[in-house]
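Internal ticket #5521
Category: modeling
Description: The requester needs a full-assembly model to guide mutagenesis choices. All entity lines are attached below as received. Residue total reported by intake: 1075.
Assigned to: D.W.
Attached entities:
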Amino acid sequence: MTRLSGGLIDRNRPLKFTFNGTAYSGFAGDTLASALLANGVQLMGRSFKYHRPRGVFSAGSEEPNALVELREGARQEPNTRATVAELYDGLSARSQNHVGPLHRDLLAVNDLFSPFFAAGFYYKTFMWPRAFWEKLYEPLIRNAAGLGRLSMLPDPDSYDKGFLHCDLLVIGAGPAGLAAALTAGRAGARVILGDEDFHLGGRLLMESDLLDGAPAEAWVATVKAELESLPNVRIMTRTTVFGVYDHGIFGAVERVSDHLPEPGSTVRQTLWRITAKRSVLAAGATERHIPFADNDRPGIMLAGAMRAYANRWAASPVRQGNDAIAIFTNGDDGHRTARDLLAKGANLLGVIDTRKGAAAQGDYKVFDGAMVTGTKGRLGLRAIEITRDGQSSWHDAGALGVAGGWNPNVHLSSHHRGRPVWDEARLAFVPGQNGPAGMIPAGAAAGQGGTAQALASGAAGAIAALAEIGITAHPIALPTAKDASADQEAFWHVPGKRRAWVDFQNDVTVKDIKLAHQENMRPVEHLKRWTTLGMATDQGKTANVSALAVMAELTGKSLPETGTTIFRPPYTGVSLGVLGGGDTGKGFRPERLTPTHHWAKARGAEFVEVGPWMRAQYFPQAGERTWRETVDREVLAVRAGVGLCDVTTLGKIDVQGADAGEFLNRIYANMMGTLKVGMVRYGLMLREDGHLYDDGTCARLAEDHYVVTTTTANAGAVYRNMEFAHQCLWPDLDVQLISTTDAWAQIAVAGPKSRELLSRIVDGFDLSNEAFPFMACANLTVCGGLRARLFRISFSGELAYEIAVPARYGAALMERLMTRGQDLGATPYGTEALGVLRIEKGHAAGAELNGQTTAQMLGLGRMVSQKKDSIGAIMSRREGLAQEKRRLVGLKSLAPQTMAVSGAHLFEQGATRSMETDQGWVTSACYSPHLQGYIALAYLENGDARMGETLVAANPLEGTEVPVEVVSAHFIDPEGGRLRD
Amino acid sequence: MLIPHPLLGPRNAQEFTYLGDAQLLRRPDPQAPDAEAAFCDYVFQRSNPAGVHQELWFHEQGDRSWLVVTRNTVTHEILGAELACDVAKREGAQ
């Protein structure tokens, strides 16, 4: 154990955990990384490409090295940063990307071949032979590279999503964020304060600086208590604001239960869409390192991270208590770490400062004007080489902190193509003026990294942001604080021949950047893609600016001339699970159930998806061996007696108003205004381009009241288009529309005995042919007072009705009809039988109205009225459509056991098969139990004139063909006598 | 994106269905001698400018009103929104 004194850990709450199967213990308040360090574990993983041993490098979400597989089984989470994984009792984690044990990774052999694996290696090497790429190279490379493994099991957790609104979103709860939130909160503004950490305080928790003469956490606790007491402030810890979107919408992920052993009854994570009028970006800064030879050994980390582990987590970076610690810095910030470590009793080798004449700021040794030029220690740092004035010497060291300056976290400010600008005084990119609208950067994110600066700029940012939306906020009393010296020199990397890593996660070295320069991959976009710099899961948070500096040196240009790197959402990785936000399985595609669904299910029906609906497909009975047997029975039962089918899914649109008739004249190709009250008419709707769009019936229940029905698939679209026509084209018409598809259950009662059955449930309504003829409709009551609508319409060609009742009575009506119709042979039928019945009758459905067909093709050209304007009327008369010669016909299969499948194309017998000889295509096909043979509907060139001709229906995809005879599409009752009986 | 609905205030764009160029409001006169050519343009020609554009959005998961939204397609800035029926009535009166 190398646990130090102090820290924000709860020593009364020890927690057990395992790493690579070894048991350790830590405390509440630890992260996995801090607990491992406190247990003397430096080696935490292997690098991506060369499989180099790696230790933790940072203390935050920028971590490039310490990636682990967290948890077991289905909850195994690869590439989890140990630096942000909150410790809980029983946590288990494994290092990743190695073959064999972590300390003896067999793939470490890659490191020996590193001269071959330089930037662009894959592009150049695996070019040839081409066929080898997919089968050999790619699997090999993928096996050797890659990071963590997926569990390959379904995600057992649930996720949620939600919307939040505020006046001011404060991103980050360090000194700037807390000052901003408090200023805005006291002004009464609606504030959301989000931070990825589980404590408020940000960098204040990592530093030893005093606020008002006391440890900073005391001030943090006071502010937290006040913010919690304000009803207008919402504090969201464990929440990463990961992206900025249009119009002040921010994406955020709240890790609701990732810190618990099991999520229990809560969700794991929540995706929040936060709509904020203004925002303060107080996201802090990320420290950068200074590349030098062999700078990637476990034990080498950012100096600010070392300070954070010592101050917040009381964890020492060394394996054993008295191992020496060294600091390598180009500025005063490294000395700050040295002072804090000394105060914790560390054994300090000294500070290697690149600045000539740099002096100690405490009781430790300074190597001024010096550099670290080499390191030793395969699995953990053992010694460092210090070079000063050309003289090199080796020194034992168990850990090395590197301080290369701080990069403001400009990420979110660049999400709207905002370009960071170079600040030469601070040697850093700071947010530019062209970032997302309404966002004010503050604190270290704006280059105001001193504690006092951060507090002041946070408060000022909140006041300025709120003033823009008319809320007056007043300055608040800020605690007294000091700004630590930020003096540093522009020292970017240590020259040398050995490999010096820039991007740890993707194993990119200074040499790779030199190679990219040599090969003219100099613009930063090319540099990134050629070397993969900054393209790992950390987006190069600790690497990009240092790499730019190296490229700038090589090209002899200034750093801003060399390029800027901007960041895309997300700020840190976001799991696909939370982006789905619970929309999985049936949540992703909800099912709509018909009113008789449960009734049908109880009868053993098979169901089929029709648009969003589940419809009964057929109702098997005991002893039926195939679905065809069932469907044949259902079809024959309708033709011989009476059948019942739930047709609720057809769209129903209520059209009311003085101009309803005129409006429908313009919607339908045929006349609707002349329809008599109490009657129904079949109608065709066209698209404005003249093609067929939808068909259905239109019933006139009163002078100013129509009910339009649509096909199931187009129910939503037809309604939307009718609203378009009303609001956008003819707003002066007095008409109102409402979709009532869900309000009415509708059941088709079809067959010669349908009138007899209905007469048993209507309340004294005269159903005689004289009183209620074909295409009549009426409001009535049934079953002793239940209001209903009755339509005498037929899709099957038989005497038939459709009866509608309020949806909640749909199942009861079906049961009543079944009971009362038992002696009539009442039979429920599904969509299959419905399809067979309509094909036998030659009625069009979706397959015939596929968006490429016209009214003429259906043989209904004369329905398109020439006397009036309607949607699509003008375009339907254009030459190409008017001369269309294909017509709907029926086909009878001449091969007794073979069906012409829908989609098959028609050719003359013996003709070569090409586009030129194509005669049309089969739209719908089925077995007709009525005709005891296979039949089909088809569009055929000059179809009307070709009755009796023999053609071939060819299906070249399957190499099959069927001889067919052209017949009328009306296979049964072509005169329509049955309908009108 | 947020769409400033003239009746309901700012609404999330996810509540809307997008149609496109608001030119679709201007259905040609079917009686005109060149009606067929005019309809051909109306049906097939759409403006798709990089910049300020008037477009039709349907508040399908809301109050079912059609809006004419003025949007800069480059910046996504929304400069205004009107009920389509108001626009249609105004243009019809001219």
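Resolution: model delivered.
Comment from assignee: Helices of chain B lie at 35-44, 84-93.
Ticket closed.
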